[in-house]
Design a protein that fits this description.
homopentamer, about 160 residues, alpha/beta, Rossmann fold
């Protein structure tokens, strides 16, 4: 059985990992062809190594790494370092690790922010599934201005 | 038969990968000496690992990695991370991965932006071909102020 | 017996490593299932390689790396480089290295700063313990807005 | 016979690689103890992997990597990425790769800019030679405020 | 006999490497238990690979890498790249490389600047010695606000 890794943080203010888990649980083949391995780490700087461990020690084919950076300048530098770590872990392992960050400055309204977060995590759970089992779904959306979280931008008029 | 990889994103608003594919399909030796392997990923941060996979798992000699960063400050930081990942994948694999990014702030007019995009992707498809099969074409243009997308700057007057 | 590494600096103005050590000494299993290996280096740019050495030469399962960056612009660039090194060491070794930095600009009052420092180091010592022996403690706090040092932000209202 | 690699770009507006080649051709031992291997790539982000290839596939002992970044903000970010790639390639291969960048904002006057470029490339060609064959020439200039391109700053008065 | 590496640049305006060498020559065991291997490179971007070579080809246990970045914005970006390279070389080799940079904007007065430089290089030479032969000296100064170059900040009042 394939394994999809999900890792999130105690720092985030929404249980992002559970959103990813429940979305994946609704996909075809769940429990038959693939299962989900879940981890939680303290903060987003711990995501990269946790993803590597999910790939190498837990045999995950792909990982969804969820974080919620704060809006202060120092938080943004830390988010950059966390993202660089996830990039490094991807390139070194040769496996996709989908970085799913929702930045607190993206949306001031708490209810809309929560909706943005749910949508983004859910969409990336689908993307992880497509990367593994349905690359043609990605291919047919090439250049279509697809967004995760808000409305799609759509393709530019020809 | 050699393989040239092309990877692009659902995020972009133009089907950049198809531009690269069609340009390569018009080059000498297409279908005889080389073929094209195409992938699409969600966003530009997924390009680096996809390129590595095209090189190591699909035996591509070279990869063209296409992305379209947005203009917001957060987008620019993400573009920087994506570009660093592509750089890392190149140096680690020892294979060229041509980063073909068209930044939305480069040109406000949609029609001109689309033309810029088509030209840049097409020129880099030619560059990939030259790197593999005609390095002398690159050599004879050394220091000639060649640009991809807009007009060439040309050499400085002596 | 497992080993937990603790590394701190001469540069910091509080003995951060001893805070981590004493917190770990109060955890269940100390001296029976795990022990602590302590190192001190000159400054925070020396932490990453010291952590790698603790993992590879001293067989530590996890490392707590403590630093106290100054507030000047040059200090912040150096802190960024130090943090990138710790990230790199984590991803390369596949072991968690908890970066525990207390930035001098976080709190101007010396007494409150010292309290922030003690709380953050102590909390991360607990996090290190949980990562090794009680991952379910992390899991049940996923998305709960947990902070190290100040008050928890708490989860967003549903 | 030793090999010294020279790689430059089509993007630059001066044929930097030929300046390096001709300077090396005038050094003692050229054609007897060492030869030059020349490559041209599209832009400066392609230099790092080209340098690695010159080292690993063409057996170069050292590489001179020439680029000419533009002055726009986006160009400067790209120059930073290109420089990081060259740094990475150096550290991974354990061979010197001399980064010879001439930034267009360094000198507005075209004639002076060209002279700056010629001087810098030429000086680094000599540096490459010294690193290989005459390290004592470098040693005796330690701390002498040597510059490549403009006038030397000289040592500080004691 | 152990070996300590010292590498500096022609770019610096003070012979930093000789300061390190003479300080090490006064330490106990010099010439009996350890010797110094000295290199000079063109500029600070050449330090990282030179340090790696000192470790791997010259069997140095530890390296002191000395540079003197200029104050212009471009110089600061280059200093950041040089520092990242030194960090990378440390983490990859698992050996300490003490980055000893004196930034020209730290002190405008030339005589005070020279004194700052001498003190910083000398202190780091001692730090290198302690890392190898007297880690307890570092340990007992943990959190004491030790600085290299200027006056120590001292520990925060309890």
């Amino acid at each position: 059985m394939d394994r999809i890794g999900v890792v999130d943080t105690m720092f985030a203010r929404i249980d992002m990992g559970s959103i990813a888990e429940s979305r994946l649980a609704g996909m075809e083949g769940f429990g038959e062809h693939f299962e989900v391995v879940r981890r939680t780490v303290p903060g987003f700087k711990d995501l990269a190594v946790a993803a590597r461990r999910l790939i190498e020690q837990e045999s995950c084919e792909i990982v969804i790494a969820c974080g919620m950076p704060g809006g202060a300048e120092l938080d943004q530098v830390c988010a950059h370092e966390a993202a660089q770590g996830i990039m490094l872990a991807q390139v070194l392992t040769g496996r996709h690790i989908l970085e799913v960050f929702v930045h607190s400055q993206e949306e001031p309204d708490p209810a809309k922010f929560a909706e943005l977060c749910r949508n983004r995590v859910g969409s990336h759970a689908v993307n992880a599934y497509w990367l593994l089992y349905a690359p043609e779904e990605l291919r047919k959306r090439a250049g279509q201005g697809i967004r995760q979280g808000g409305a799609d931008a759509g393709p530019l008029p020809r």
